[in-house]
Amino acid sequence: MEFSSKLLENAVNEMSQLPGIGKRTALRLVLHLLRQPEHQTFQLSEALSKVRAEINFCESCHSISDKALCEICENPLRNKEMICVVEDIRDVMAIENTSSYKGLYHVLGGKISPMDGIGPQDLNITSLVEKVKKGEVKELIFAMSPTMEGDTTNFYIFRQIQDYHVATSTIARGVAAGNELEYTDEITLGRSIIDRIPFEASLKS
């Protein structure tokens, strides 16, 4: 792709590094920004700079937050004895949109994937196990995407906490195998949370 401007080329190259954005789409987006009022482009740039520089992660669940504790962890109406284990913030948002779950979350920040060089030590697993050891948790709900990596992560955590008195369950497989939670419709995901099954039973299926 030939560019008439080095500045344009640099902007397109940076934009195309975003997931799902190829060079042609990046060019279309950059040209769109150039057609907008200057202040709108600067507002976008400022918002991205601030979110990168000032964003925090909840000290308890590791979700993205503006404060030390996120609004969900601070909410006194949430069931603090129930923790839903998810991969990232997108899964928290997907489950919250179902209005079917009133407990807390624990964001792992990924899933075990040896092919990608991601091991248990790269995830927020230790802090989750510590919560269980302290007796703060009555039930862990594994809500990882039903992929091989998700199942591997669930099983690893299960092995770490199986000697403690905590119930473990997994979302019902109304979510098709291989699907990511964020792309599952709210009704199916909500039913999967409500109809969750004991984790041990999922190992036999």
List the helices and strands and how they pair.
Elements (H helix, E strand, L loop, with lengths): L5 H10 L7 H13 L2 H17 L1 E2 L6 E2 L5 H4 L4 E8 L2 H8 L6 E5 L18 H8 L5 E4 L5 H14 L5 E4 L15 H9 L2 E2 H6 L1
Parallel strand pairs: 3-4, 3-5, 5-6
Antiparallel strand pairs: 1-2, 6-7
Helix pairs in contact: 1-2
Give an overview of the whole structure.
InterPro entries: DNA_Rcmb_RecR (IPR000093), Rcmb_RecR (IPR023627), Rcmb_RecR_Znf (IPR015967), TOPRIM_dom (IPR006171), TOPRIM_RecR (IPR034137). A zinc finger (C4-type) spans 58-73. With 205 residues, the chain is α/β, with parallel strands linked by helices. The chain has 2 domains: 6-54, RecR Domain 1 (Helicase, Ruva Protein, domain 3, Orthogonal Bundle), CATH 1.10.8; 70-204, Dna Topoisomerase Vi A Subunit, Chain: A, domain 2 (3-Layer(aba) Sandwich). It has 9 helices and 7 strands, in the order αααββαβαβαβαβαβα. It has helices at residues 6-15, 23-35, 38-54, 71-74, 89-96, 126-133, 148-161, 186-194, 199-204, and strands at residues 56-57, 64-65, 79-86, 103-107, 139-142, 167-170, 197-198. The relative contact order is 0.10. The mean pLDDT is 88.
CATH architecture descriptor of the largest domain = 3-Layer(aba) Sandwich
Assembly type of the shown chains? single chain
Number of domains: 2
Helix content: 40-55%
Strand order of the largest sheet: 4-3-5-6-7
What class do helices, strands and sheet pairing give?
Answer: alpha/beta
Low-confidence stretches: none
What is the CATH T-level topology of the largest domain?
Dna Topoisomerase Vi A Subunit, Chain: A, domain 2
Number of strands: 7
The fraction of residues assigned to DSSP E strands is: 5-15%
